[in-house]
Amino acid sequence: MVFVSECKSTQRSDAAATVACIKITIFLTIFSAIPLATCFSRSIITGHSCHDLPLTLRQKTTLQGWVQDNDGEWQWQEDDAPYPSSVATSTITATATPTLPSGSFRPKQSLGQNYLRDGNTVAKIVRAFVKDATETLARRNDGGDSKLEGSTQQTQRPLRAIELGPGAGALTDVLIPTIGITNLQCIEIDGRSVELLSDKHPELTIRHQDVLQVDYPSLAKQPFNNNDAGGPLSIIGNLPYYITSQILFALADASHTDSIRSATVTMQWEVGRRIIAPPSCKDYGILTVVFQLYADCSIHFKIPPTVFYPKPKVDSALLGLHFVGPEKLRRRLVGVRPEDLRNVVTSVFQKRRKTVRNGIRKLAMKVLGDEERVKLFLDSEPLPLPEVVKMDRDDGDAFALGQELPRDWASKRPEELTPGQFIEITRMLYGADEDWETCPLRNKVWRKLNHGSNSN
Ligand SMILES: C[S@@+](CC[C@H](N)C(=O)[O-])C[C@H]1O[C@@H](n2cnc3c(N)ncnc32)[C@H](O)[C@@H]1O
């Protein structure tokens, strides 16, 4: 358009010049549309977002990653896209589900408050939650009557649900008649929501608390009602996206004690893609390695911005995470300590464009102490697989099938290695507990040290 108006401003009467001008305009229009069209068609075919577009053509996001603080402790730096400003209230119809109390209840962007306003989506999320929670119990083959690690209590009920961030109760209102009010507890930081929900559902237990400070193992031991003796929890939540990764890492840690069995949670679409990414994909990273090791993960469905108030600029996903639990996790880790694995994956993914050799060198120096030993480690052949992994591999277990390291493992890029292969690298660098069946799984490995209770 700019080009056309410039052409007009010359006011040339020469017809040939005008025709040339129009041709150039058409050419430029087509030319500038090619990258967008390519990206659009590729995203339809592959489902991938257009990460490789220049920043001018896509939304700018903050960078993610692990950063080491002054104490040498790794901290996860959130990468979730900043929340866009609220859409004008006038564009939201009065029939939205649920309605927020008029006047006083303005969504707080700082708390990631994007409320569900579509009854169908609410119903789909609750259905997916019930499916995840019951399937996980069935997968473990124990009908839910298992003991929590470190507890003598038996669970009586298969479903004890925790809703994270209930807000004005869009999900809560449907969960209560579905699973029963005494089988549900909510955790919410916003006092306005706590008051609103307490008025609406006086019998509901709502914990006025920061979700990042929840001590899941002790929550799992507490009975929810008179017929309950405590037991594993099933999580549901339309999460506040600004702390998605931190919430998920806390759940992974809680699965060490079998305190959490399943999680059915919304998240930014791109974060969901990272969790389910296959190796050699640009979405593959720390979240992938951790959650494909700790859980069976799937995306239930994509959620458009239009079902939220205010509308976020990003698409969302509903994910189902079925935690494998301490027994299977120990079998997969074969004596490797999760904290050692964390050090390895955070080191190499900090330098994801470099080879594993370059990404792990500094950590190897810290662990092994001298250059010679580091060189030996980096040049060494993979260890023979532990017997239990061979057995699982022979049984066709998908995780074990991907565990063997290639001989040139050190010259691979981090995203080319499977979660099982990261376990093998960690075993080579740190060694592993011989008695893998009882190897300790600490309370805090993936979550931040200042989150949750101080026990470890
Ligand atoms: C995306 S909204 C979901 C609200 C409601 N469940 C819905 O779907 O309409 C996220 C909710 O999490 C709450 N929240 C945000 N940060 C929190 C935190 N650190 N601890 C507990 N709740 C938090 C917000 O106040 C809000 O109610």
From TrEMBL:
Ribosomal RNA adenine methylase transferase N-terminal domain ranges (all copies): 121-325
Alphabetic keyword roster: Methyltransferase, RNA-binding, rRNA processing, S-adenosyl-L-methionine, Transferase
Pfam families tied to this protein: RrnaAD (PF00398)
Enzyme class, UniProt record, top EC level: transferase
MF terms in GO: RNA binding; rRNA (adenine-N6,N6-)-dimethyltransferase activity
EC number: 2.1.1.-
InterPro entries xref list: KsgA/Erm, rRNA_Ade_diMease-like_C, rRNA_Ade_methylase_Trfase_N, rRNA_adenine_dimethylase, SAM-dependent_MTases_sf
Binding positions (S-adenosyl-L-methionine): N114, L116, G165, E188, D210, N238
PANTHER family per record: DIMETHYLADENOSINE TRANSFERASE, RRNA ADENINE N(6)-METHYLTRANSFERASE
Record-stated family: Belongs to the class I-like SAM-binding methyltransferase superfamily. rRNA adenine N(6)-methyltransferase family.
Protein name per Swiss-Prot or TrEMBL: rRNA adenine N(6)-methyltransferase
